[in-house]
Predict the 3D structure of the following.
Amino acid sequence: MHRSLRPSALIPPGLIVDQIHADAQQVTITVHSSHRSGVCPSCGTLSSRVHSHYPRRVADLPLAGRPVQFLIRARRFRCDAVRCGRRIFTERFAPDVIAGHARRTTQLEGIAHHLGLALGGRPAARLARRLMLPVRKDTLLRIVRCHAHLPSEPLSVIGIDDWAWRRNHRYGTLVCDLERRRIASLLPDREQATAQAWLASHLEITVVARDRGGGYGEAAAKALPDAVQVADRWHLMENASRAFLEAVRKSMRQIRQVIGSATINPDLLTCAERLQYEGYLRRDETNATVMALSAEGIPIKQIVRQTGLSRGTVRQILRGCRSEVFRQRESSLEAYWPLLEALWTGGCRNGAELWRRLRASGFRGSLRVVGGWSTRRRRAERLESEQLQRVPSARTIARLMSTGRDMLSKTETVTIAAIESGVPALASARDAVADFQILIRRGREADLTSWIARAHQSLVASFANGIAKDEAAVRAAITLPWSNGQTEGQITKLKLVKRQMYGRGHLDLLQARLVGAE
């Protein structure tokens, strides 16, 4: 059955259309309330005595590409209650139609709220302008703040981690509800006292997932002594790999002797390599001075004062982490070394010709890289008395030792075999790290104690000491399904939202867009 569309069907319920005026700029609809009486907001008394009328302008959703504005002929009523202190009150409308003192209908307010949540202020204002919605960027942010509501559900399992307001300058703390996969709260800093105060106000928490840093662990231990702390599994794996890399850096002097590159001929070095080698010689003198002072029993603080070095540099020297000669990046020619060797042995000695043949095989580097390689090779052959053998960087050696032998080239396999036979302590450290990672992946919680005892005798003893101090949290990471991965994902989302705010991402607004938007 065909029914005509009446004008009243286009406006919110509770309003009656008096007049519609449309022009090229906007549509103005004059309306009045369909109710004969009003309710006093102070005492709740129903009154039908009209005191006066006043016009009220309220924006609504657009119509046919033009903004819509309601011109409401609102009323003021008299309150007849004897004990009510309010003599006159204005007419109220249903909250789902027009809120008190609002200049927008509830429908328009809701759309503006969602635009502000999704895009922020300025981008949402641009889109609203295209949608014919009369809302400015400051209004959008104000709407987001007004409609924010913090979750009230009790927390049981949380993840806690820090995030950067500005890297290396200022940090905040994010608390994630791991069960509901949402942000529970944002804290203005990462101080232990701040985290402890927040945790103490949520005594219902039973599990706290955190990273390996000590601040959040101590805060949780003081505020929630009965809660189970879970170390993040990704950080455990990353810390194990980093511990092995530090062990390789400590062993670089022995590695150079094993490979046969303990003596370097400066005549075989390029200009950039010669600068690195001269820097290594200066570092070696500094290292010797610091090691001599340490051998005399002088503490680190006194060594810092005598040498003028930073405390971190002195610690690196004492740990043997500054013994690399060439700290170069991995060469783009590494995958093409077998082909280069074959071409060179076959008689092709011109750098440009070598580059053209490599380009035909898929090489995407520049002619300068191939020319530098051919120059070094030609110099090495010219000085047959002392040929330079280049030692890979510590990071490259750590990667090769951690890779399966079936994935290595013949040259790499020979190099790693020489290192394993010449520096057996490094091979033992590699095996200890590999066993720890397998222990984490396969959930072998019972093997943790024996692994700690064995790792104490290897080059990764410092990492084993850290695991022993945090053994309860590591065991929980092995046995429980909780981890801090969801928290890291929420931090990534937070950073994206913060960058969208064009410098206006203050804590209350981030709370409104991330915590109160669920």
Q: What stands out?
A: The longest helix spans residues 271-295. The chain has 21 helices and twelve strands. Confidence is low (pLDDT under 50) at residues 384-388. The CA atoms of residues 107 and 135 lie 13 Å apart.
